[in-house]
Amino acid sequence: MPQQPDAQARYSRYAVFVDVVEEGSFTKVANRIGYTQSAVSQTVKALERELGCTLVERGRDGVTLTKDGQQFMPYLQAVARDERALAEKQREVQGLGRASITIGTFTSVSRNLLPRPMLDFRRLYPSVRFNLRQSEYTSIAEWVRTGECDLGFTNLADAESAGLESHSFGPDRMMAVVPPENPLAKKDELTLADLATQPFILLDEGRESVTLHAFEQAGLSPRVCYEVTDDYSILAMVRQGLGVTILYEMMLVGFESGVVVRPIREEPRRTITLGWRNSATLPLAARRFAEYLISELG
Known about the structure:
This protein is an alpha/beta fold. The protein has helices at residues 13-23, 26-33, 37-51, 67-94, 107-113, 115-124, 137-146, 156-161, 192-196, 210-217, 231-239, 249-252, 284-297, and strands at 56-59, 62-65, 100-105, 129-134, 151-155, 165-178, 199-203, 223-228, 244-248, 260-263, 269-276. The longest helix has 28 residues, at 67-94.
């Protein structure tokens, strides 16, 4: 049996002709694809005019190829097969079938912002695959700029430096995190000056460090003893008494055990920004997901 085209497909004369020969009947093909028998016959005749020869003969045994038809048949089958593959790819892209979306992100976003939207999006497009790559803002913005990632969560400054198109979400404030035995844990609110007196564990945020910028704006220099990219490693280090730190409120939710979290009077904060290289060339799946994120998260 010949491969049946999708019911929504538009049938080219090549596909119709191949089906007629493989079915051996104009009537069967007409019934299957919803054409009249006359329309199928006219389609085959149009192809014969195009090629300048008679391709099929009708007889008691149905439709058979002429000698010319036998010579053309492999080529017409190849054209029909390629047309069907092209139509399938078009449907796949439009339906986001088997599409892959690569997103540059950091811990608090991948843990708090992305799970629900990814789940909901895959309910709409079950074949979509997400690839998450974690790093700091500058590297993520560069990955998007070079095309290694379709989308990237970064900060506004790095998105602009990389020349990305972007959308910014709400601010995420930073909180002081200190060991329970540290004297600062007794205070209800801390200042940057308080934190500058302690061994400091710096979150590596790339070129644009919100933490260091906040200290600089206050005319202070923290005693940086450690610089770490992973938020959870920093929390473990604070629990073990290696120093104090500043981490984002979004990341800390549910991970306050074994440490003391306090607000900072100066309220340093970042603006979480979603960046992409070019709307016009962004893959369809990534563009749809970006639109979905923006509509859901604001």
